[in-house]
Amino acid sequence: MTQAAPLLSIQNIEVIYDHVILVLKGVSLDVPAGGIVAILGANGAGKSTTLKSISNLLQSERGDVTKGDIRFRGERINGLSPSELVVKGVIQVMEGRHCFPHLTVEENLLAGAYTRTDGAAAIATDIELVYRYFPRLKERRESLTGYISGGEQQMCAIGRALMARPKLILLDEPSMGLAPQLVEEIFEIVKRLNREEGVSFLLAEQNTTMALKYATYGYILENGRVVMDGDAATLRENEDVKEFYLGLSAGGRKSYRDTKHYRRRKRWLA
Amino acid sequence: MSQAAWRNISIGVSGFIVLGLGALVIANPGKIFFSWTFFFEVLIGGLLAGTLYSLVALGFVLIFKASGVFNFAQGAMTLFAALSLVRLIEITNSILLSMALTVVIMMALAYVIERLVLRPLVNQDVIIMFMATIGMTFLIDGFGQLVWGSDVYPLNLGIPQDPFEVQGVLLNQFDLVAGAVAALLVAVLAVFFQKTRIGRALRAVADDNQAALSVGIPLRHIWFIVWTVSGLVALVAGIMWGTKSGVQFSLALIALKALPVLILGGLTSIPGAIIGGLIVGAGEKLAEVFIGPLFGGAIENWFAYVLALLFLLFRPQGLFGEKIIERV
Ligand SMILES: Nc1ncnc2c1ncn2[C@@H]1O[C@H](COP(=O)(O)OP(=O)(O)OP(=O)(O)O)[C@@H](O)[C@H]1O
Ligand SMILES: [Mg+2]
């Protein structure tokens, strides 16, 4: 990472659901401008919660950020409404895609441009841009998104987010329920969007292999805490990550001592 | 009990009802007067009266689609809108000015409801929202009568009410106007929902409000808009009913007539509300005239509910209840 101020910076946030359920216990992370950063972790680790606390979709699930700072381009954005955040350039693509099923693909894209005020012509141009990245969506433009395939829905959800002209997309489990080839295709497009359109990504993934292949940096979350972080390349090579998240291990079964080493490390990092 | 068993029972019950009615008709040939002209007269009168039910049901559907709230206060809103209009006409002596003021009042009502009821209760169970609208019903009724009075006020906007004849079928001009107004309103709403940015956002919210929130559609604005729109639909319904039978407390009760319409048409379907209204309107008039005498009359009041009950047994999602798209 460079020394320049990060695009997004989270300092030590704590999140409580329903006033009692403490889910994030002091998470800090940075997304540099132009970066693709991955949040990795098992079910229930708090990946989605982290993303929702940034986009403030938490609000409508009776969750609260009770401590810490969330800064976007240096400005504190805690407590802004999702629509204010979208206007500022932060948008979330929710886990499970969530297209509007009774709207067509094109209507979904248009709905994504709801917050824009730069006129119909600019919006039409961007629809074509989205179709250039996702040619399949163009073929399906008149179909109701309730009836298109899961992969197409994921593309539609990402395309819809692009329509808001975001600077940062919070992408929650894009690989969920998709065939490996399709996951690869979608990650390729994410990478191109990052490079060609200058959109930064913070993505939550359980598919560690894929995420570390495309991300520049990664954070590993466990029980609402960051237990490890580093450059994607470093994480890929890390023995613990290999064993616990990539499902590989160098020399057959690991001994108990190695597991202990991991625990120790975890405690220390937490 | 299994679903199949329920189905058999309900088929049995309705078969029994149909047979019974048939027997009654055959056994009492003298009591019922039938001619095709007369039949059409009753049918058309019923259909046109039915458009008024459609209008009330439409208000329910709009709100239910956008916010998942079953708005029990729709009838109270209808009464309130009509009352405001009638009394404002008395005060200002201008129909146009009073209309404009009433529109503003309905917008203010929508704003207050969003601010004081919907916003604090967001994400609560549907049953809690429903209870809240029951509370609102009493508040709006009470407030309306406190401010505007509780007499019967005749409403005359100059809509002609004379009967006339086409090919021997007697029709009422007012019913035709009501039908035309309802058709126009539905056309306007259809264009609004299909073609405008706000309309698209309303449909998006109706589909998936979390996702709508995530793309930056502010739910509060949308709720305000949709309650305003259904307030305006209530105003149109109130004008029509008020012209027909005077503006009075019983207007609030037509909401109860909208329930069978909703069950027939499906809670989420605008065409369903329209067609449900027509079926109920025509059905109850035909039943009253041609079957009523066998029961000693007055079946108009409960016919719609029997119809609704049969629908609940056979097709609980209504005729046009939105298809639930299952695949993910
Ligand atoms: N609305 C909610 N109310 C209460 N608890 C919640 C809520 N949403 C999430 N949680 C809890 O917070 C924890 C973290 O959930 P979160 O959805 O952030 O996990 P995740 O890392 O995204 O998991 P997954 O990989 O399964 O999506 C879980 O224990 C979950 O039960
Ligand atoms: Mg998740």
Keywords:
heterodimer, A: 270 residues, Rossmann fold, 6-stranded mixed β-sheet, 4-stranded antiparallel β-sheet, B: 328 residues, mainly alpha, ABC transporter involved in vitamin B12 uptake, BtuC, binds adenosine-5'-triphosphate, binds magnesium ion
Brief overview:
The complex is a heterodimer of chains A (270) and B (328). With 270 residues, chain A is α/β, with parallel strands linked by helices. Chain A has helices at residues 47-55, 82-88, 105-112, 119-133, 135-139, 150-162, 180-196, 208-214, 232-237, 239-244, 256-269; strands at residues 8-17, 21-31, 36-40, 63-72, 75-76, 90-93, 168-172, 200-205, 217-222, 225-231.
- What's the name of the CATH homologous superfamily of chain A? P-loop containing nucleotide triphosphate hydrolases
The number of distinct structural domains of chain A comes to: 1
Give the rounded overall mean pLDDT of chain B: 85
Shape of chain B: globular
CATH architecture of chain A: 3-Layer(aba) Sandwich
Strand share of the residues of chain B?
A: under 5%
The CATH class of chain B is identified as Mainly Alpha
Query: How many DSSP E strands of chain A?
Result: 10
Given helix and strand content, the structural type of chain B is: mainly alpha
Instruction: Tell me the radius of gyration of chain B.
Output: 21 Å
Main interface: chain pair and counts: A-B, 38 and 23 residues
Oligomer: heterodimer
Low-pLDDT parts of chain B are none
Spatial strand arrangement across the major sheet of chain B: 1-2
Task: Tell me about this structure.
The complex is a heterodimer of chains A (270) and B (328). Chain A has 270 residues and is of the alpha/beta class. Chain A has a single domain (8-237), classed as 3-Layer(aba) Sandwich (Rossmann fold), CATH 3.40.50. Helix content of chain A is 40%, strand content 24%. Chain A has helices at 47-55, 82-88, 105-112, 119-133, 135-139, 150-162, 180-196, 208-214, 232-237, 239-244, 256-269; strands at residues 8-17, 21-31, 36-40, 63-72, 75-76, 90-93, 168-172, 200-205, 217-222, 225-231. In chain A, the strands form two sheets. In chain A, strands 6-7-8-3-9-10 form a six-stranded mixed beta sheet, with helices on both faces. In chain A, strands 2-1-4-5 form a four-stranded antiparallel beta sheet, covered by helices on one side. In chain A, α3 runs parallel beside α6. The longest helix of chain A is centred in the last third of the chain and has 17 residues, at 180-196. Chain A is globular. In chain A, 46% of the residues are buried. Residues 251-257 of chain A have low confidence and may be disordered. Chain B is mostly helical and 328 residues long. Chain B has one domain: ABC transporter involved in vitamin B12 uptake, BtuC (Orthogonal Bundle), CATH 1.10.3470. Chain B has a two-stranded antiparallel ribbon with strand order 1-2. In chain B, α2 (36-67) crosses α10 (254-265). Chain B is globular, with a radius of gyration of 21 Å. The mean pLDDT of chain B is 85. The chains are: A alpha/beta (270), B mainly alpha (328). The interface between A and B is medium-sized, with 38 and 23 residues. Magnesium ion is lined by residues 47-48, 95, 172-173, 204 of chain A. Magnesium ion (MG) binds at residues 47-48, 95, 172-173, 204 of chain A.
